[in-house]
Design a protein that fits this description.
138 residues; alpha/beta; Nucleotidyltransferase, domain 5; five-stranded mixed sheet; 4 helices; 5 strands; 46% helix; Putative pre-16S rRNA nuclease; cytoplasm; nuclease activity
Length: 138
C-alpha cells in the first residue's frame, strides 16, 4: 500500500510517496500553489495518486510546541478534509512539529547551497512527515 505525504503551505505543497511496502518515503515534488486556481492543487494530487496507486494521504499538522493547534494547523486540517472529500481517499493527519527544521538541518549537513535548499525544503519536509507516519504504523 502506497501512502502520499504532504507538507501543506500557503505557497507550496511538498509531496513524498512511500514505497509499495510502506517502509520508506521518497520525495516526489513541490507543487507551487496559485490562490486564484486552487483546483489545480487537487488536479495535481489526483494525478499523483493515480500514477503511484496511492491508497492513503498523510497531511502534516503544524502544532504549536505546547500541542495546541493554531491558525496554520486549522488551515491544514481544512485542506485535509477537502482532499478526503474531493479525491475520495483516506486522509490522516500527522504531527509535523520540527519537520521543516529537521529537513533544513539535513540539507545543511549535506552542504546543499541556500538556493538549492529553498527549492527542495518542502519536499524534504514531506519526506520527514511521511517517514514518521510510516515508522509509527509499521
Amino acid at each position: 500500500m502506497r501512502v502520499l505525504g504532504l507538507d501543506v503551505g500557503t505557497k507550496t505543497i511538498g509531496v513524498a510517496v512511500s514505497d509499495a511496502f510502506g517502509w520508506t518515503a521518497q520525495g516526489l515534488e513541490t507543487i507551487h500553489r496559485d490562490p486564484n486556481h486552487q483546483d489545480q492543487d487537487f488536479e495535481r494530487l489526483r494525478t499523483l495518486i493515480d500514477e503511484h496507486e496511492v491508497e492513503k494521504v498523510v497531511v502534516g499538522l503544524p502544532k504549536n510546541m505546547n500541542g495546541t493547534i493554531g491558525e496554520r494547523g486549522q488551515a491544514c486540517e481544512a485542506f485535509a478534509d477537502a482532499v478526503s472529500e474531493r479525491l475520495d481517499i483516506d486522509v490522516a493527519m500527522w504531527d509535523e512539529r520540527l519537520s521543516t527544521s529537521a529537513a533544513q538541518q539535513t540539507l545543511l549537513e549535506a552542504d546543499v547551497s541556500r538556493k538549492k535548499r529553498k527549492k527542495v525544503i518542502d519536499k524534504m519536509a514531506a519526506v520527514f512527515i511521511l517517514q514518521g507516519y510510516l515508522d509509527r504504523h509499521q
